[in-house]
Design brief:
This is PV1 protein. It holds the Pfam family Homeodomain. It is found in: Nucleus. By secondary structure, the chain is mostly helical. The chain has one domain (6-55): Orthogonal Bundle (Arc Repressor Mutant, subunit A), CATH 1.10.10.60. The chain contains 3 helices and no strands. It has helices at 6-18, 24-34, 38-55. α2 packs across α3.
């Protein structure tokens, strides 16, 4: 289980606000910039979409 820093969460949330689905290129770029794996980014976005769906 990944414990994201406040800065990482802020970056992920702002990316999510712009677009809820990331393509492979965007995921690679974000992972490189944040020093996380692409799988961690992908999983975070999946979980965030499910959280949004539950809130509706």
């Amino acid at each position: 289980r990944t414990a994201f820093s406040a800065e990482q969460l802020s970056t992920l949330e702002s990316s999510f606000q712009r677009q809820q689905y990331l393509g492979a290129a965007e995921r690679r770029k974000l992972a490189g910039r944040m020093r996380l794996s692409e799988v961690q980014i992908k999983t975070w976005f999946q979980n965030r979409r499910m959280k949004l769906k539950r809130q509706l």
